[in-house]
């Protein structure tokens, strides 16, 4: 513990071998005896002053406890029959009888959350009555008006409210028994003005409505064994760390019944409408703290119950792709357990919607909230002009924009292809020629830049890219350095996220470089630009493409046809005695000059162009033809008047000294540093060789 670096390293190693420790195998059967000592030894690692040590300790504990089944094994060793009851009494007395500090509340509330999920019936049986009794006791010993108007709050009451919020997160069918207690606590505490108190009540509201109306797994065990069997038949320690076939898991889901839905509807009708009435009738008369409390309670009720409220009827968005693959198609995941449970969930939600169609709700709560909150906002704007000016100024604040952008990214990420709703508006702002607010343009660019989880310009929509990418390139509003930097960041991010597609595309372009396939100038520019790209694969393909193009753009060779007499006269050799009608294979005096026997390399350009090189090796071996056609050592030269446009692109870039230096530097960087010698690259050599474009 005194050496944090050693401790974190050891805990990290233990986390990675946790399964091998808890398993009981023939190869290593002693690991389980170290589980409890390791768990006890790791507890001091939870140090509030050292975040890294605490995180690795909690990760180790979480990994171990996910691999083992935590149940009471006391009867397996026949020690004491009342051990479980003693532990239960100690836990209940500790949780319900001690007022904990703010630092310890989160840890203990997490313990209660685990108890509620593991055994909700027994946990509620012993903790819910005592908690509600403690809350009422505090309220009875204090004047209600003081608690309602006290901004400081009561520490003991706040702790019991936190405990109450965790208890109402139990399974819905287990909460029905305590309906009267729960409603009584909410009636007495929902109007507290203290911020900690009403925020805790708001969490309790969310937890209660989620437990009553949502569909969720009842058991999170990753085991197919029945842990309730006698220990003679099955000892849970044998299942520690064992692998489980997911298709054999019998997952049980909580599906709301009519009693739970009635409870949820009664709760919403009891507490939602009075808050809305308060805001509508006394929205300007109440204090800001009271208004904030009311809005917080309304928000928590909405979050908890909106899953069972139908959506607001609105106009359907046209040409919006709902999903890449519909979940009902034959291409969905075919794992039996998922398809089976999905059908169960669909049936449960259909039953829930059918029941709610005739429920006690007076109206669509979504529309009611939209209307009432809109009226309240208009009222506040009308009567608080200073606040309106402050809001207008605040909208330009970067922190406000960042928060709004984060929420927008979450929506766009959750609903696929929903970005189509905003693309046209962004393109319209970019393409307008009128004066546009700089903050609007900057905000749009930040939306395009996205975050680590969402990046709009590379989404799978050619229609979007066809609109968006050209508008970014043509935008004329990038007058400030900050705006230009944003555009550069977007361009760089596009290149980083699409390098794989670029590699595939340029490799396919290399296959199109053929003599009879016309090549556009943009294609050549792309190849040239990729010669200095950061990605080595793209540079390699660009080198191949430039080499192929340089071969294709070379002017055609010049061919001449001469008689045998003229050729032999020029080289000073006598005519051969044999012609087309005679055959005499082998080396002879008349074909010796074709070999390099007495060959002398030309010393001038004129001599080189006049030298005759026969590219047909069979000429003269059997016999001599009367006429011989061959290519002269001279090509047509490009001039500034007849140079093609594609060749001009290469010429302009390769006469640029800085560009050639960058290409050479990237070629050197591409060499393997482990090699002591620089390997000869044939492709690069040929690219420079055939790229000798002479302009006269």
Please characterize this protein's 3D structure.
- Among the domains are: 4-68, no CATH class; 93-213; 261-312 and 339-388; 499-554 and 642-690, no CATH class; 557-635, no CATH class.
- The protein has 30 helices and four strands.
- The strands form two sheets. It has a two-stranded antiparallel sheet.
- With 696 residues, it is mostly helical.
- It has helices at 4-16, 18-22, 35-42, 51-67, 83-97, 102-118, 120-141, 144-149, 155-167, 172-175, 179-189, 195-213, 258-282, 288-305, 336-356, 365-383, 385-394, 398-414, 420-431, 438-449, 462-474, 481-497, 499-512, 521-530, 536-553, 564-570, 605-610, 645-654, 657-669, 682-690; strands at residues 216-217, 253-254, 557-563, 627-635.
- The protein starts with a helix and ends in a 6-residue tail after the last helix.
- Helix 6 (102-118) packs across helix 7 (120-141) and helix 12 (195-213) runs parallel beside helix 14.
């Amino acid at each position: 513990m005194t050496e944090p670096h050693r401790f974190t390293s050891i805990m990290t190693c233990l986390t990675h071998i946790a399964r091998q420790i808890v398993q009981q195998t023939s190869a290593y059967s002693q690991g389980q005896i170290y589980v409890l000592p390791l768990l006890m030894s790791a507890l001091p690692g939870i140090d509030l002053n050292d975040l890294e040590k605490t995180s690795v300790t909690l990760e180790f504990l979480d990994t171990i406890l996910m691999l083992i089944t935590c149940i009471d094994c006391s009867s397996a060793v026949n020690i004491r029959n009342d051990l479980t009851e003693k532990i239960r009494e100690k836990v209940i007395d500790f949780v319900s009888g001690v007022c904990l500090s703010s630092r310890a509340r989160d840890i203990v509330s997490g313990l209660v959350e685990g108890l509620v999920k593991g055994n909700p019936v027994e946990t509620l049986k012993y903790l819910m009555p005592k908690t509600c009794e403690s809350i009422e006791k505090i309220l009875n010993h204090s004047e209600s008006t003081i608690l309602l108007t006290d901004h400081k709050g009561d520490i003991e009451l706040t702790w019991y409210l936190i405990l109450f919020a965790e208890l109402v997160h139990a399974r819905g069918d287990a909460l029905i028994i305590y309906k009267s207690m729960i409603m009584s606590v909410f009636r007495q505490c929902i109007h507290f003005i203290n911020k900690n108190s009403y925020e805790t009540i708001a969490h309790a509201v969310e937890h209660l409505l989620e437990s009553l109306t949502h569909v969720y797994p009842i058991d999170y065990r990753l085991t197919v064994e029945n842990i309730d069997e006698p220990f003679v038949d099955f000892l849970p320690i044998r299942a520690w760390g064992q692998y489980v076939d997911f298709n054999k898991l019998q997952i049980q889901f909580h599906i709301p019944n009519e009693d739970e839905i009635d409870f949820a509807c009664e709760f919403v009708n009891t507490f939602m409408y009075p808050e809305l009435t308060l805001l509508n009738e006394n929205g300007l008369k109440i204090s800001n703290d009271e208004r904030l409390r009311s809005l917080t309670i309304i928000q928590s009720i909405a979050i908890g119950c909106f899953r069972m409220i139908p959506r607001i009827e609105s106009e359907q968005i046209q040409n919006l792709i709902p999903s890449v693959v519909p979940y009902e198609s034959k291409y969905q995941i075919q794992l039996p357990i998922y398809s089976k449970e999905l059908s169960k969930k669909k049936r449960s939600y259909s039953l829930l919607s059918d029941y709610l169609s005739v429920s006690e709700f007076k109206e669509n709560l979504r529309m009611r909230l939209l209307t009432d909150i809109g009226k309240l906002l208009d009222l506040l704007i009308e009567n608080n002009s200073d606040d309106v000016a402050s809001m207008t100024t605040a909208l330009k604040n970067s922190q406000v924009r960042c928060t709004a952008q984060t929420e927008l990214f979450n929506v766009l990420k959750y609903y696929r292809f929903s970005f189509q709703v905003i693309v046209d508006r962004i393109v319209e702002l970019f393409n307008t020629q009128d004066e546009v607010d700089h903050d609007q343009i900057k905000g749009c660019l930040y939306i395009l830049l996205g975050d680590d989880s969402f990046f709009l310009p590379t989404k799978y929509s050619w229609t979007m890219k066809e609109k968006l990418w050209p508008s970014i390139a043509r935008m004329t509003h990038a007058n400030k350095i900050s705006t230009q930097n944003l555009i550069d960041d977007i361009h760089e991010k596009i290149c980083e996220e699409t390098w794989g597609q670029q590699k595939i595309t340029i490799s396919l372009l290399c296959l199109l470089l053929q003599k009879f396939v016309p090549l556009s100038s943009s294609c050549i520019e792309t190849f040239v630009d990729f010669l200095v790209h950061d990605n080595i694969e793209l540079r390699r393909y660009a080198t191949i493409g430039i080499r192929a193009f340089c071969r294709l753009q070379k002017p055609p060779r010049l061919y001449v046809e001469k008689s045998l007499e003229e050729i032999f006269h020029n080289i000073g050799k006598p005519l051969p005695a044999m012609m087309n009608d005679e055959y005499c294979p082998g080396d002879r005096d008349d074909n010796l000059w074709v070999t390099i026997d007495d060959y002398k390399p030309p010393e001038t350009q004129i001599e080189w162009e006049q030298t005759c090189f026969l590219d047909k090796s069979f000429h003269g071996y059997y016999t001599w033809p009367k006429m011989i056609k061959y290519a002269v050592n001279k090509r047509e030269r490009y001039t500034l008047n007849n140079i093609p446009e594609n060749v001009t692109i290469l010429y302009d870039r390769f006469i640029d000294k800085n560009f050639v230096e960058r290409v050479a530097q990237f070629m050197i960087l591409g060499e393997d540093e482990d090699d002591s010698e620089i390997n000869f690259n044939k492709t690069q050599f040929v690219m420079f060789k055939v790229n000798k474009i002479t302009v006269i």
